Sequence to fold (347 residues):
Amino acid sequence: MAIKDVRNQGSQGPASKVRSWVEAFMNPLAGMTKRSIERMLEQKRLGNDAMLQVAYAEVEANMPIFGITIDKRVAGVAGRAWDVVPVDESAAAKAQAEKVKKMFEKADMKNKDGLGRALEHLVLGAFRGRSCVKCFVDGEDLSFKALDNWNVLEKNGRLYWNPDLDVDMDVERLQEIPDGEVAWTSYARPVDQPGIMIYLRQLVGEEQWARFVEKQGIPQVILTPPEGTSDSQQDEWMYRAMRIFEGGSGVIPPGGQVTELTAGRGQDPFTDYVRHQMETISILATGGTLLTLGGSTGLNSNLADVQLAQFETLVNRDCKQIQNALNGSAVPQICRKALGQPQLCRF
Fold:
């Protein structure tokens, strides 16, 4: 089955399918638990990760550290110079490489459905496990359509088109996508897989953090009555102390004293906990924490250089994946449809 024109198809299917999709995917993070994540991972092992892919996208949108690390990986790839080169020294290969390069350069200037958007989307495979782009050739004009991951399912190294976004559809009933139809990257250990569990742990940490700050962030108040105050008046002073604690202000007679109990209460444990979750994501996505979190660990610049080298290694792998993806799909389609020639160049 060829994906003829997803530019006009978008993410819409038959009305009944759209309704079932909306019901299934409405706020996929609401009420998320460890068990619900495990169920989505079990479905992934069976070849249907449509629900998981929607959850991945939502987690990325809701967790700032994901946005930061994704931008870093994308910027790392976008900052690299690219070229189209001949496969040999023949005049035909050199001429074809020059023509194809000009077509890519023209596509690179597009803000919508251009080469830059395609590269950005293909980088997301490192986070989501895979990422697919369809190249359209119209004369010498190129455009690229990023395919939503819940529309494209993967099983046993094969891709299947899921146009109706039916999360319950048997993979065997899906429409298999022929080899070379789409350019796609694939990663065995995507960042989002442990990331979604980290997201859940951070939610719990932030909830406990807020409760701690709400209760423990307000200093306790002790009122010392003036000398000569009888025991029978202690209840009145206790009432005044509670009013000052709850309202933040109050009046006491001359000779009384107000003491705030701030010492010995300790630092809340949740600030470090939440930060640890962000650092874990950063380590997974960029190969280190200094590049994303500003070097707050106080480590020397030599380690920063080591982490930068590790990040460059990850970007090199991204570039290799993207290069192979485009050479396996977009470049041969361009050569065949626009030039009427076999492929004699590579991206």
